[in-house]
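Hi, here's the filled form for the chain we discussed.

Project: internal
Contact: R.S.
Residues: 115
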Amino acid sequence: MSEFDIVDQYDSIDDPGQKSDFLDAVGLTRPVINSLRRRRASARRAAEATPTRPESNSPTTPPPNGAAPRSSRPPRGTRRPRTTANTRPPNRSYALRRYRRTHPPVVIVLILKFD
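And the returned structure, exactly as it came back:
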């Protein structure tokens, strides 16, 4: 018995007293029933909205030069070239350290007087 069957049973009852008794017996409340109704409606809309894919009756064309189809080959590599040992990102750590200071700088002024 699915949870949506409970909603159907609840809706089939006409007497409000029997509805309350049914809710007590099942252990649910009216807001839960309303939530189940919304979920059921949403599931129905989602089922109607998903298009069914028609099966392709046209024969597939073989890959050129007798190559294996793409599904049986390993996946393609990334378009980005692989990094080699001699290429590194630029070292810009000074820019990161500059903005880490959370306290203001302290300025000390010394005045020396010699006679």
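Let me know if anything looks off before we file it.
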